[in-house]
Each structure stands twice: as structure tokens, then as C-alpha cells.
């Protein structure tokens, strides 16, 4: 018999991780418990984890990059939760906290390295300069 499978959005994980509001947090906790027991599989797209990190650091929750990364990594490793590109997201979360850079910039660097790419085209260089193993391509000059 196949395990029932569902997906979950960012607010589901926010309720579980923050405990607020309590009624929804309890419902999220129950579903996650079912997943941990193998009675439910939660399949989660990578964008949900990216939004989770961003929201935990926002003015609403004000978590540090370290704390937000820790919570995201806990979700990535939770039994019964299957996240697309979990290893790539974990690498990005660690880089994000370690280098104090934007999560999506860290994800792009992790993605590039995984794909065997060294060059990144960007006009926003501040975060990328903090990360190793990449080369920033200068803006293209307009032909005269």
C-alpha cells in the first residue's frame, strides 16, 4: 500500500517552527509526526525552503542567518519530508550563514559549483565577492 503523499507550503513550516498560532502549529506538528512515523510523505519544492529562510529572517520573525539556516536544515533532514535539491539547499544555507550573504546568492553559487560552472553573470556583486571558487563576469559593454 502506497504512503499518502502531499506537499506543504511555507506557512505550514512557519507554524510548525514558531508555534504560532498555537492551533495551526498543533495541526502542523500532527502532520509532521505522521510523516516521521511513515504514514505520510511530504514532498516539498526548493522554493518553499528559500521562502522559509527569507521569511524567518524578515521583520516578522527577525531570526539571524544562522538560526534561519539551522531551522531550514532541520526541515531538510526531517524523516518523512522529501525536499527537491535538499543537498544543494543545505549547502546554500550553510554558505548563507557562514558568509553572511543573501540566501539566493548562496544558492546560485552552490548551484554553479554543482553544475561545474565557475562564471556568474551579475550586476549585484557585493555578496558574490564574499564567496570563493567563482568568477564574476563584468557587465557587457554596449557596442558603439
What CATH first level would be assigned? Answer: Alpha Beta
Unreliable stretches, pLDDT < 50, 5 or more residues?
Answer: none
Tell me the radius of gyration: 18 Å
Order of helices and strands: EHHEHHEHHEE
Extended strand count: 5
Q: What is the count of DSSP helices, taking H or I runs of 4+ residues?
A: 6
Report mean pLDDT, rounded to a whole number: 95
Please report which band the strand proportion falls in: under 5%, 5-15%, 15-25%, 25-35%, 35-45% or over 45%: 5-15%
Summing up helix and strand content along with how strands pair, one would put the structural category as: mainly alpha
**CATH architectural label:** 3-Layer(aba) Sandwich
- Percentage of residues in helical conformation: 40-55%
The structural domain count equals: 1
Oligomer: single chain
Task: Order the strands across the largest sheet as they lie in space.
Answer: 1-2-3
Distance between the termini: 67 Å
Which term fits the overall shape?
elongated
Q: Largest sheet at a glance?
A: 3 strands, parallel
From the 3D structure, determine the CATH topology.
Rossmann fold
Give a description of the structure.
By secondary structure, this protein is mainly alpha-helical. It is built from six helices and five strands. It has helices spanning 10-18, 22-36, 46-57, 65-77, 86-99, 103-114; strands spanning 5-7, 41-44, 81-83, 119-121, 135-137. It has a three-stranded parallel β-sheet with strand order 1-2-3. Strands 4-5 form a two-stranded parallel ribbon. The relative contact order is 0.11. The model has no long low-confidence stretch (mean pLDDT 95).
Amino acid at each position: 500500500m502506497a504512503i499518502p503523499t502531499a506537499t506543504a507550503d511555507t506557512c505550514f513550516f512557519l507554524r510548525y517552527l514558531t508555534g504560532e498560532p498555537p492551533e495551526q502549529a498543533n495541526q502542523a506538528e500532527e502532520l509532521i509526526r505522521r510523516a516521521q512515523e511513515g504514514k505520510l510523505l511530504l514532498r516539498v519544492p526548493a522554493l518553499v525552503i528559500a521562502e522559509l529562510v527569507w521569511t524567518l529572517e524578515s521583520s516578522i520573525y527577525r531570526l539571524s542567518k544562522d538560526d534561519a539556516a539551522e531551522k531550514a536544515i532541520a526541515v531538510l533532514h526531517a524523516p518523512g519530508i522529501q525536499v527537491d535539491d535538499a543537498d544543494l539547499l543545505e549547502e546554500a544555507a550553510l554558505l548563507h550563514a557562514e558568509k553572511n550573504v543573501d540566501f539566493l546568492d548562496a544558492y546560485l553559487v552552490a548551484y554553479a559549483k554543482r553544475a561545474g560552472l565557475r562564471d556568474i553573470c551579475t550586476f549585484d556583486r557585493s555578496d558574490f565577492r564574499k564567496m570563493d571558487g567563482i568568477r564574476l563576469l563584468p557587465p557587457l559593454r554596449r557596442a558603439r
